[in-house]
């Protein structure tokens, strides 16, 4: 009897796991993106910015194409209709959505983000400005999708955002603004990221997350290759662009960016947005500075003052509050 009781309890827990899988997915995505900054810095020691972008996304697209076609062939052989890894054909009527999504992120977001960091004197201020997506997401999601925003969403976002600003700003000494143009650039970058989330929600359910990310990144490459040709191609050719001559550290960093940051994190975030919505998914952007701080503590020995630990606590509390569901009240006519 006891064995049956514990077995039933295990089955209930397993079935409830379906509800928390999107949250596990988005946390993993933010963890991957938190580490990508270090990988980018390492790669930029050897590669120019646009060269790094087109190289990582080209490899990511080729990998997704290979995996997607193989998965589709296996699914067809087994008579399976739906496969999470199978690459699906794009319908003509859905082309505008994929084009817009690819333009919003990574094209516009990467461009605005790069020039924001270049304009503002302090990377700390830039990071704080670029981390305001949870504050903007509820308003755009309501206007475009009519996505319901609850009082718990608002309170949780505010608590989490206060914690994020504490985490980023506490202990920082360089608060010189620099070129004020960096502020609207940061705002445009954040709006691009949020609009990207909204477009993920609008793409029909028939497409798997892998298919969505594949078509978006193909779109992005259509824009990035001409930019690379205008800005960096001549310099790269004159320098003799050969990956084989680069240090092993670059290959590790580049592999991390191509496989984990450009494929896995995007697929996980796409899955979460389509499961729990734009507002609740975007609030997890506040976790990225938390993971960055913990990575710097664990691997680089950077100490965290008490204010940063308090910021981490507020971020976590805010996330839990934001995900709380309001009780449905019967409407009285």
What does the largest sheet look like?
Answer: none
**Helix/strand/pairing category:** mainly alpha
Strand content: under 5%
Say how many strands there are. Answer: 0
| Order of helix and strand elements from N to C terminus | HHHHHHHHHHHHH
Helix content: over 70%
Shape: globular
Using the CA coordinates, give the radius of gyration: 21 Å
User: Would you tell me the overall average pLDDT?
Assistant: 80
Q: Total number of helical segments?
A: 13
Q: Termini distance?
A: 50 Å
The poorly predicted ranges are 328-333
Brief characterization of the structure:
Helices cover 76% and strands 0% of the residues. The chain is mainly α.
Describe the structure.
The chain has helices spanning 2-43, 49-78, 95-119, 123-130, 133-145, 151-169, 182-202, 209-231, 233-239, 248-276, 278-282, 287-300, 306-323. The chain is mostly helical.
């Amino acid at each position: 009897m006891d064995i049956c009781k514990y077995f039933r309890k295990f089955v209930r827990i397993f079935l409830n796991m379906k509800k928390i899988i999107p949250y596990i997915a988005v946390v993993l995505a933010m963890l991957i993106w938190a580490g990508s900054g270090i990988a980018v810095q390492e790669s930029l020691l050897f590669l120019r910015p646009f060269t790094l972008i087109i190289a990582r996304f080209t490899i990511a697209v080729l990998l997704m194409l290979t995996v997607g076609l193989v998965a589709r062939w296996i699914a067809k052989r087994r008579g399976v209709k739906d496969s999470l890894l199978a690459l699906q054909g794009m319908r003509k009527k859905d082309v505008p959505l994929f084009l817009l999504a690819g333009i919003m992120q990574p094209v516009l977001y990467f461009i605005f983000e790069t020039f924001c960091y270049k304009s503002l004197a302090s990377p700390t201020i830039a990071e704080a400005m670029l981390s305001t997506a949870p504050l903007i997401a509820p308003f755009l999601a309501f206007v475009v999708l009519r996505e319901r925003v609850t009082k718990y969403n608002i309170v949780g976002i505010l608590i989490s955002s206060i914690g994020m600003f504490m985490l980023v700003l506490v202990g920082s000494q360089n608060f010189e603004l620099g070129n004020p143009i960096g502020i609207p650039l940061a705002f445009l970058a954040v709006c691009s990221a949020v609009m990207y989330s909204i477009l993920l929600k609008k793409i029909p359910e028939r497409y798997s997350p892998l298919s969505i990310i594949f078509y978006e990144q193909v779109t992005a490459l259509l824009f990035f290759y001409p930019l690379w040709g205008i800005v960096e191609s001549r310099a790269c050719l004159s320098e003799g662009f050969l990956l084989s001559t680069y240090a092993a550290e670059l290959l590790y960093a580049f592999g991390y960016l191509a496989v984990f940051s450009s494929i896995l994190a995007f697929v996980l975030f796409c899955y979460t947005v389509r499961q729990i919505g734009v507002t609740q998914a975007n609030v997890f952007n506040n976790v990225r500075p938390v993971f960055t701080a913990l990575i710097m503590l664990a691997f680089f020995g950077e100490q965290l003052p008490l204010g940063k630990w308090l910021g981490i606590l507020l971020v976590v509390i805010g996330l839990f509050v934001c995900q709380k569901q309001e009780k449905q009240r019967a409407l009285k006519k």
